[in-house]
């Protein structure tokens, strides 16, 4: 008897990789949805009793889905599949009723073992259990390169967030990455920064590798620098004397972890320059003065990290030069067509 399976993820690349990672001999009927509301509707309609659920999505996120499944006592067994690998994220989803948590990028062998452990799947005698499933309806569509970029940025963001959360002993709310191709002059208007009246400080670090180059910018609201210094364990007199040190430390941690995870997924390595302070106590527009760039266009990835319970928010921007876009698209093309868990 076929098992109804719902794959819920806002990324078409993630949905495709999830479907390909399912065991080939597991008889399933797949339903693909892009957000939490559609997922709940599919469960209520009886289209799946097993749900693979992403956490960070626009609208109703994975936490909301788990809460509603529990509240309505919906007939669904939920496995969270996410790039948010913070220990607290794992604990929270289990408290909300998830069967288990599987980290992205998905490993078909881990997935098969997890399904077996909960009695959801038994491998056939004549077929290896980790052989990837044939292309399912809806999973063989071409993935736009921007969507592939957003998904690998999502996974790298989760790895950077996890490192920072463990270091500071906090929980970090992670966004859906924003990907835009725009003129340098449009950068400020494209930012998802709501508090533009405060003064900001910024740090930049250049990166380069395999024909892909750019700059990472960390933008931080000055109102919370002292709190950040305390979380980093710096002496109070040091934070008062020089508020750029915690920003440079934070930049090294976040940018380094992000680029490491970003490059690993594409089998690339990036060199990273030392952090340089762009300015302190400035208007956000002054920090992002486009005259510092010779590029006509940039590819921008924006990530807004929020440290829960401390009201600390910082914006991490990855800016890629226009010459970097072709080699980046080539790497993403291979990645979106690759079988999960199989390297080149």
UniProtKB/TrEMBL annotation:
Domain (Response regulatory) ranges: 4-119
A Pfam family that the UniProt record links to this protein: Response_reg
Superkingdom classification of source: Bacteria
Positions of post-translational 4-aspartylphosphate modification: 54
BP term (GO), one: chemotaxis
Keyword terms: Chemotaxis, Phosphoprotein
Entry keyword annotation includes Transport: no
One Gene Ontology MF term: hydrolase activity
InterPro entries linked to this entry: Bact_response_regulator, CheC, CheC-like_sf, CheY-like_superfamily, Sig_transdc_resp-reg_receiver
Protein name (database record): Response regulator
Source organism: Halovibrio salipaludis
